[in-house]
Amino acid sequence: PSTKNGWYVIHPGIPPFGAFGHWRTGLTHRWSPAHLPRKELEQLTQDLKHKRSQVAAGRRQANEQAAIRANRKWNHARTNVNHPYLKRKQVGVYGIRQVHDTLLVPVRVRGELTSLQSIGPEGGKMFMKGGRIKGGFHLIGEPFSQFIIAEGYATAATLYEQLHQPVAMAFNAKNLTPVAQALRKQYPDAAITLAADNDMWTDGNPGVTEARKAALLVQAKLLCPDFTGMDVSTKPTDFNDLIALGGAL
Question: Which of 15, 143, 209, 233 shows a CA-CA span of 20 to 30 A to 186?
Fold first, then answer.
């Protein structure tokens, strides 16, 4: 409840069809009635292609409008950031801004600002409606012969401060592969490390699963936080949690 992690789309008709999924874990599933007659199945397939075309056009328009709003909001945000989330996570300010009590983290695709991630005082995170996220990242430091790809801001900032290497923040587990592929294309000879969130409290451990998949695709190393022997009552998952519990990289 209230997390906004899930989504669904239903196309009414005879028969109806649709899809649903979970943003955080990357789960997606298409749905349609089973055991349809051949004629109805062919019609359903044609309807689905048409709907996909409409959805794609609508998504492109939404992306363009969101990018305009994101740039306007970003340009009016202040650069002197002082935020309770950063104090609680004990990390610095790296290319982010603030509006009132909300942190703004830029999402960039091929260098263009496409969306913003908002982080509230208590750590609640939301993306700008309609903004493009896939393949987008926020870069801390400048890539050179080696760099790291991680999920969230606190994790990326922690890795940057601890290892003194540039870090690309992919925002979520499902976006690790698109970001890794984009950066591998841009830096074909770089040594890349995928820094996974250890989502051991979530079925299927999506953080490790997606990071491993991305690492294999771009021939990168995989780094995962190990909480063995630590107090895990707070259910830690990432490298920021690891450092907070007294661990080391």
Answer: 209
pLDDT per position as a tens digit, 60-118: 899 999 999 999 999 999 999 999 999 999 999 999 999 999 999 999 999 999 999 99
Q: Any residues with CB less than 8 A from the CB of 100 and at least 6 apart, and which? A: none
- Token couple for 187: 């830096």
Q: Are 195 and 162 in contact (CB under 8 A)?
A: no
Element (H, E) at 50: helix 38-76
SS3 134: coil
Residues 118-164: tens digit of each pLDDT = 999 999 999 999 999 999 999 999 877 899 999 999 999 999 999 99
Between CA 175 and CA 180 the distance in angstroms is 8
Residue type, 225: P
**Rounded alpha-carbon distances, angstroms, from residue 220 to 34, 118, 149:** 41, 30, 10
pTM listed for this prediction: 0.81
Residue 195: helix, strand or coil by DSSP? strand
List % helix, strand, coil for the chain (3-state, nearest 5).
Answer: 35, 25, 40
With bands split at pLDDT 50, 70 and 90, how would you rate the model's confidence at 191? Answer: very high
Residues 6+ positions from 177 with CB-CB distance below 8 Å: 210, 213, 214, 217
C-beta of residue 198 within 8 angstroms of C-beta of residue 151: no
| Phi, psi angles (nearest 5°) of residue 110 | 50, 40
| Residue 164 CA: distances (Å) to CA of 156, 158, 190 | 11, 10, 16
